[in-house]
Inverse folding.
């Protein structure tokens, strides 16, 4: 997962709360760091995204494949 994909996924899932959940919410799945701290510490984006999903009870159906752009049409 690229950083841009992570950001799109967070924005789509959390809307106006996106900045808060990335910078203020402590995630047990990444050592009780915030998503921003975990990313800065080199934790893979996908692991941070999944930890964020677990912590905020995002349904599994919305955890995989999010953040990807739709394929370009010819």
């Amino acid at each position: 997962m690229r950083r841009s994909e992570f950001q799109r996924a967070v924005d789509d899932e959390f809307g106006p709360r996106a900045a808060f959940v990335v910078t203020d919410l402590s995630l047990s799945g990444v050592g009780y760091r915030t998503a921003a701290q975990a990313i800065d510490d080199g934790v893979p984006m996908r692991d941070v995204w999944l930890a964020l999903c677990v912590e905020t009870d995002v349904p599994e159906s919305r955890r995989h494949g999010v953040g990807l752009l739709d394929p370009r049409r010819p």
In short: The first strand starts at residue 26 and ends at 27. Strands lie at 26-27, 33-34.
